Amino acid sequence: MAFRGANASSGMGVADHSKATYLELQRKKVHRYIIFKIDEKKKEVIVEKTGTPAENYEDFTSSLPENDCRYAVYDFDFVTSENCQKSKIFFIAWSPAVSRIRAKMLYATSKDRFRRELKGIHYEIQATDPTEMDLEVLQDRAN
Amino acid sequence: MSSELLESYACMPSTERGRGILLSGHSKLNNILYTNGRSVIILNLDNLLDVSVYGEHAYPATVARYSPNGEWIASGDVSGTVRIWGAYNENVLKNEFKVLSGRIDDLQWSPDGLRIVASGDGKGKSFVRAFIVLSSSRWDSGSTVGDFDGHSRRVLSCAFKPTRPFRIVTCGEDFIVNFYEGPPFKFKLSCRDHANFVNCVRFSPDGSKFISVSSDKKGNIYEGKTAEKIGELSAEDGHTGSIYAVTWSPDGKQVLTVSADKTAKVWDILEDGNGMVKKTLACGGSGGVEDMLIGCLWQNNHLVTVSLGGMINIFSATDLDKEPITFSGHMRNVTSLTVLNSVPKSILSTSYEGLIVKWIQGKGFCGKLQRKENSQIKCFTASEEEIVTSGYDNKVIRVPLQGEQCEDGVLVDVGSQPKDLSVALLSPELVVIAIDSGVVLLQGTKVVSTLNLGFTVTASVISPDGTEAILGGQDGKLRIYSINGDTITEQDILEKHRGAISVIRYSPDVSMFASADLNREAVVWDRSTREVKLKNMLFHSARINCLAWSPDSKMVATGSLDTCVIIYDVDKPAASRITIKGAHLGGVYGLVFIDDRSVASSGEDAFIRVWKVIPH
């Protein structure tokens, strides 16, 4: 029996496809962002949407639902004060205040297990409304 | 987009009946220093629009003084703390000392700028303390330089003799003037010549004499080195009310006193030590309690007097008969701002105690609007023809405006305290007033109907043509009604806000309306479809108090308790916004667009600031 390392508190596993997509973003840079969703029926974290490198931060924020929680990974490119081109990977736990309590609980308890699968995240952000994951917040953090 | 401060209209010193205030200044820069709330204000007498504010005190500030070399300013507050900060270059804090256990009423620098004496309410412990400010060895600063016994009550004023041998004089509510020799300062003698609170004591610039003035309407003059009484201000033509403050002329031959009898007097101090009235300066005004003069300063050629109502008069010392320059401002939280499209465009600002002030860009203070009944103001709207106000009672007052003057107002009883009121711009007869759980419709001065709607109404607005009204509730829901005659019919309920609605405004072209709530969020809606046009305007960190549209309906500005003003462009996403941080210490309460590129804001610090909005 294939034992998928389940999360002790909520029993959510991580689909192999999710991990593989993340590794593609990290190593081959084929995605700008990945949005993950918890599929309650299959009891695992799956990939909901990916974005091409041509897309920008606005496209990413508009892909996140207003009333439901998600996990997301975004590859942020910027230029530092010393004129170096850098790229940092952000993990965003999107949990809007207007979403249902059940969703917030589910995503909060599964986050830790999921995060551990993604190695190489530089910064983590928890956002409860759009202003908390504003581009400025990422720019502040990345320096 | 970015913003730039164009103008600041300063507040006035905060005043208290029965007490004087102590002003100070810098003669070379021609600045005066005074306090209001937690701010210390530096105002340039040559250009009244040149004002800067120091807002770092944690408690209301009481007095501020420049150091003798003009580099530092020492300011004291009600908690007994003295802060010493740089007069230029962003007011960097040099040092902070906890000097007394109660409020500081007066503080003076020693002439060499190394020591400060502070006096006030010691709450049983010491009422006066002198300490070292600057010393070659770092551990020395803050240490006390002498024992100041001899007072049993609040010490209202203190003075440092400006020349050697050094002396300190203090005076207070125990009617005593005490004299200390030093350093290290020790009690020398007490003068008990006054019969009431001694409000102010000051040395002449050459240190040869000092004068004390009191609520017993007298002023006594003493010898500077020995504190021997040498004379007094003559009773003939003297003050008929408590004398609150005194200031010497730069040449030490005259003094200016101000009193509760609403006059300021210039006295010649003769060689024998007596004072004779040279001129009595009456400061204009309606003659009420607000004209009592409570503070004064003689700087260079200017005689500055401050009245209880916050009016500052600047007389010319060389030409005492000349009319003074008069200006004023607010002393309390300015809760609303409106623009009158007269020529030239003026801004009307109001504060809760009923003061309405008119300002003109480029000029500053333009006058106070005097109304026949000076009631308190909670809600205020104005147009060129009329002012409609409501206060904390059940009345709404409609006052017609004739040019600059207010005519007699008509009081309308609406049955309960109005929470918000709105006038239909195109048919100004119609006014919608939100009361606790309903709305009152007013036609002219007649109450057309009072409707109980069953929910707690917190904000209201009427469309310019008077056919539609939007009411915001405690539950965060916006309810749209159509108005027919004396009834209103509910058309729609919009749910988006997560807190009680604080303000709703139609855009000038009436195609949109914007609403803001206590949960820090603002939303712009399309009027015809009633759909959300701009959302995620969540960038404030405390309740939104006020909202304004630009005349071209392209920009919306919100002002909040978190002291920021945020300006959004309706056609761009909310994230591309301009934030003006720290617009007003204590919170922004009033906001209005003067034209498409300038915004005026007002707040708890009693200032009004005009900002320029620069789009990219």
Task: Report on this structure.
The complex is a heterodimer of chains A (143) and B (616). Chain A is an alpha/beta fold. Chain A has four helices and six strands, in the order βαββαββαβα. Chain A has helices at residues 16-28, 57-63, 101-117, 135-142, and strands at residues 13-14, 33-39, 44-51, 70-79, 85-94, 123-127. Chain A has a six-stranded mixed beta sheet with strand order 1-3-2-4-5-6, sandwiched between helices. In chain A, strand 2 (33-39) and strand 3 (44-51) form a beta hairpin. Chain A is globular. Chain B is mainly beta and 616 residues long. Chain B has no helices and 56 strands. In chain B, strands 33, 34, 35, 36 and 37 form a five-stranded antiparallel beta sheet that branches. Chain B starts with a strand and ends with a strand. The chains are: A alpha/beta (143), B mainly beta (616). The interface between A and B is small, with 9 and 7 residues. Chain B: It comes from Trapa natans (Water chestnut). Chain B: WD repeats lie at residues 54-95, 191-232, 236-269, 494-535, 537-578. Chain B: One of its GO terms (molecular function) is actin filament binding. Chain B: Keywords: Actin-binding, Repeat, WD repeat. Chain B: This is Actin-interacting protein 1-2. Chain A: Keywords: Actin-binding.
> How many strands of chain B?
56
Describe the strand arrangement of the main beta sheet of chain A, using strand numbers.
1-3-2-4-5-6
- Which residues of chain A sit in consecutive blocks of at least 5 with pLDDT less than 50? 1-8
CA radius of gyration of chain A: 15 Å
**Gross morphology of chain B:** elongated
